[in-house]
Amino acid sequence: MRIEAIEAIPVRIPLKPERRMISALGRHEVSDFVLVRLHTTNGVEGVGEATVTPRWSGETVWSARAAIERLFAPVLSGVDVADIETVTQRMEAVAIHNWFAKAAIEMACWDALGRAARRPVYELLGGACRPLTIRNRFSLGAYEPKVASQRAASLVAAGFDTIKVKVGTDPDHDVARVRAVRAAIGDATCLTIDANGGWNESQAAGCLERLADCRIELVEQPLPRGNYTGLRRLRETTGHRILADESCFDEVEARELIEHRCCDAITLYPGKHGGIARAKRIAEFAAEHEIPATIGSNLEWDVGAAAMLHFIVS
To answer: Which ranges constitute the DSSP H helices of 190-250?
Structure first.
């Protein structure tokens, strides 16, 4: 079964008011995607999704569509769908980065393979090694303290046992927001924070000192991508557990973070790493070094979310 053609279909979805995100990256009120439809020589089709956020991965609908149709599709024509390594290598040969566009094509390959075999993709990835019931946390935007606390309380009442609060905006506002949320959700609910690289090292250290009594489980991406030394210093001086997200796009960055003890955990998702196979390799490397992995989100749509679930349980 070989790749015959690849289509790229842009989709734009406005978010409901309660789903809109405010973070160090700005306001996110509309989600853009590029759906991939992969046609094979035996008539089986596969679908994938590129979840594009210019301020996060640098990709846009236009760049992802152009990369898929003009760069990747021509070099993938005739390639065996099951040869994921060759699919990845050929995409790498014509373009660096473009992680979510590459992941969309790889997702579509796995989807086509699953459809052809009449098996769920997680079985093709080695089988389920985790429960099919997945715990998740709700990511709460950088709202005013009163709004944030009310929203957090309603989420806990709805059954969420972990709340993640966006920070990395104004340090004083960040501290007030986190304190308000902790007061609203009580001690039994886990609390994490995510700065999306919005703090500098001094701001991060100051905020974490002021929040020392809030029992924060993880501090996600407190500093900008590339500041490995700063992450390590924060770990050592504040005692908080650091979760690396934007700092870990590829295997080289994962190795740098883990071998130099810059983080306590890493965040994985297929889109960020250019595909499920790469995400699994990073997860395996982390496990070898006893570094836990969590699954993050770029506000994926249904296709991307499904791929993430198959990756998680495998």
So the answer is: 201-210, 228-238
Q: Are 134 and 309 in contact (CB under 8 A)?
A: yes
Q: b or e along 219-242 (b: 16 or more beta carbons within 10 Å of the residue's beta carbon)? A: bbbbbbeebbebbbbbbeebebbb
* Nearest in space to 230 (alpha carbons), one of 218, 217, 244: 244
From 62, 92, 123, the end of a domain falls on: 123
pTM for the model: 0.95
**Could you read off the pLDDT tens digit of each residue along the chain, which spans 314 residues?**
999 999 999 999 999 988 889 999 999 999 999 999 999 999 999 999 999 999 999 999 999 999 999 999 999 999 999 999 999 999 999 999 999 999 999 999 999 999 999 999 999 999 888 776 767 889 999 999 999 999 999 999 999 999 999 999 999 999 999 999 999 999 999 999 999 999 999 999 999 999 999 999 999 999 999 999 999 999 999 999 999 999 999 999 999 999 999 999 999 999 999 999 999 999 999 999 999 999 998 999 999 999 999 999 99
Q: Is 300 exposed, middle or buried (0-12, 13-18, 19+ CB in 10 A)?
A: buried
State how many domains the chain has: 2
Same domain, 167 and 113: no
Q: Are residues 65 and 190 in the same domain?
A: no
Claim to verify: residue 205 and residue 249 sit in the same structural domain: yes
Q: What is the CATH number for 24?
A: 3.30.390.10
132 lies in a domain?
no
Domain that holds residue 231: 138-313
Tokens standing for residue 92: 């790498």
| DSSP 8-state symbol, 219 | E
Which one, of 245, 199, 198, 237, lies nearest residue 218 by Cα? 245
